[in-house]
Amino acid sequence: MTLFIAICDDDKHIGADLETTLMDILGKQGINYKIDIYFTGEELCRKMEQGSYYNLIFQDIEFAQNAINGVAVGNIIREVHQNEMVSIVYISWKTKYALELFANRPFDFLQKPLDYEKVEPVVQKYIQVNGLWSEDFTYKVGHDTYKARIKDIVYLQSAKQKIVLHLADGRKEEFYGALKKVYQDQLQRHDFIFIHAAYVVNYDYIEVVKYDHVTLATPGGHLPISPQKRKDARDKYFAINERRAG
Fold first, then answer.
1. CA dist 18 to 21, 35, 61, 118, Å?
2. Which residue from 28, 44, 92, 99 puts its CA 20 to 30 A from 226's CA?
């Protein structure tokens, strides 16, 4: 699936910077995307009337006095176009528009200046809410390709050039590969955490995080956290906690 995104902001530098940030975030997630940039709300509305379709719009609120503002753009999208499918993320230097925006059912609001740390959680939330993650983990044994449901993977273990896939039903699958590459290519975006050079664990199966190990929500499940990974593992665990709570 391709994610169609529009950025509508009369500041060309903000639009370009946001586009670069989105390209970085989506590229790391392995998601196909197409981004269009508009400098007026009228131009965006006209393109949508002509058939341009977007999943996600980053909409500035304040424009020049002779242009319609972002709230009016939202009204046109929701009321005139009767489009409830597109998710609108409003962006502004000011936060005074809360009540006006509420009627347009925005997906989120970001206060300028924008940076990676502000934009990424919103994109991650959109991806999760709309189920854009691939649901299958793929691996090869010989010339054959197999699949496992990502939600069923408890953890992966590296052992002598092989990776052992530990599944929630107790099954184990083995295949050749490098754990770091597998993590980066397929699992990092699904909230798996590298806790040790030999272990990557699914956040959803972590019951307790201790200083030097994690306890899993499976019988007898304890995995070590290496000294080198302790800070990064704990930071990522609590970042996922915070993002999901939000």
1. 5, 10, 15, 11
2. 28
Give the list of residues 6+ apart from residue 111 with CB closer than 8 angstroms, or none. 91, 92, 93, 94, 95, 118
CA dist., res. 10 & res. 70, Å (int): 11
| Residue 187, phi-psi category: left (phi > 0), alpha (psi -120 to 50), beta (remainder) | alpha
As a whole number of angstroms, the distance between CA 89 and CA 219 comes to 43
Give the residue among 186, 198, 243, 190 at the shortest CA–CA distance from 224.
198
Q: Which one, of 54, 50, 44, lies nearest residue 22 by Cα?
A: 54
The architecture (CATH level 2) of 136-245 comes to Beta Barrel (2.40)
Distance in angstroms (rounded) separating the CA atoms of residues 207 and 217: 5
Architecture of domain 2-129: 3-Layer(aba) Sandwich (3.40)
How far apart, in Å, do the first and last CA atoms of the chain sit? 26
Q: What is the pTM of this model?
A: 0.59
Q: Kindly report, residue by residue over 62-112, the tens digit of the pLDDT.
A: 987 778 899 999 999 999 989 988 999 999 998 777 667 787 899 999 999
